[in-house]
Amino acid sequence: MHHDHHDNLYCLLRGRKRLRLYAPSDAPRMRTHGRVRRVHPNGRINYAGDPTAADGRTAHDVLRWRLRRARRARRRAEVALEAAESEARRAAGGGRGVATKKAAVVAAEEALDCAAERCAELLLDAEARADACGGGRGRGRRRRGRRRGGRGAEGGGEEGGEEGGEEGGEEGGAPPPSFCDVPALPDGEAARRALLRGASELVCEVRGRDALHSVR
Prior knowledge:
The protein has 216 residues and is an alpha+beta fold. It is 41% helix and 17% strand. The protein is built from 4 helices and 7 strands; from the N terminus they run ββββαααβαββ. The strands form 3 sheets. It has a 3-stranded antiparallel beta sheet with strand order 5-2-6, with no helix packed on it. The protein is elongated.
């Protein structure tokens, strides 16, 4: 039993499969291998050591976006300074408006200094985060990318299937954090609720050529 991340479109080509779906809000009850740290309002689940925003962005993603924006601002400041200096040279040759043009140059230099400082701060932040992570973030994502098992809606478990289903987990490694430490669900509803600490379930059966769309 496991969950996928965010919106899902489940299509069954042939056969029949029964799915037991559980709400993301019940994630702390689901005995996942990972420790649930947060469930976003849209249903995205974060585990210890892998925080994201509700749309899946990590702090590293946000930092890269800010750095790209800061570099664009620095380039605009450079262009503005070049234009101000050119105007100041022309004004000096004509003898009119020299003071105004010089003031524009000073303002453009200050803007460029601020933009360059912002880029430097973000680069230092990026280096500090890289040192703190030590490469663990990439390894964790590669582990999760190799997970096996059926692709059910987020927060849902699966049973049955066209060929009896697949077993979740990894070959020769620890299971992904989104897999549950439950070998098989009991047949009785009361037993399942006791095992999953009161989590409410929704049973859904799909047949060949049916589709199940799970959204938040």
